[in-house]
Amino acid sequence: MKKLLTIGALLAGVTMAASAYADEIKPAVLYDLGGKFDKSFNEAAYTGAEQFKEDFGIEYRDFELQNDAQREQALRNFARRGMSPIIAIGFSQANALEKVAQEFPDLQFAIVDMVVDLPNVRSIVFKEHEGSYIVGMLAAMASETGTVGFVGGMDIPLIRKFACGYKQGALAANENVEVFQNMTGTTGAAWNDPVKGGELAKSQFDRGADVVYHAAGATGIGVLQAAADAGKLGIGVDSNQNALHPGSVLTSMLKRVDIAVYRTFEDAKDGLFEPGFEVLGLAEGGVDWALDENNAELISDEMKATVEQVTNQIVSGEIVVHDYMADQTCPF
Amino acid sequence: MNAGQLPRWVDFGLIPLLNLTAAFLVSGLVVLIIGENPIEVVQVLLWGALGFGEGVGFTLFYATNFIFTGLAVAVAFHAGLFNIGGEGQAYIGGLGVAFACLALDQVVPWWVTMPFAIVGAALAGAAWAFIPAWLQATRGSHIVITTIMFNFIAASLMVYLLVNVIGEAGSMQPETRTFEDGGRLPFLNDFIPFADFGTAPVNLSLVLGLIACFGVWLLIWRTRLGYEIRSFGANPTAAVYAGISPVRTIVVTMLISGGLAGMMAMNEIMGSQHRLLIEFVTGYGFVGIAVALMGRAHPIGIVLAAVLFGMLYQGGAELSFEIPTITRDMIVVIQGLVILFAGALEHMFRPALVQFFTMRRLNAAQTG
Question: Which residues form the signal peptide (chain A) (predicted)?
Answer without folding.
Answer: 1-22
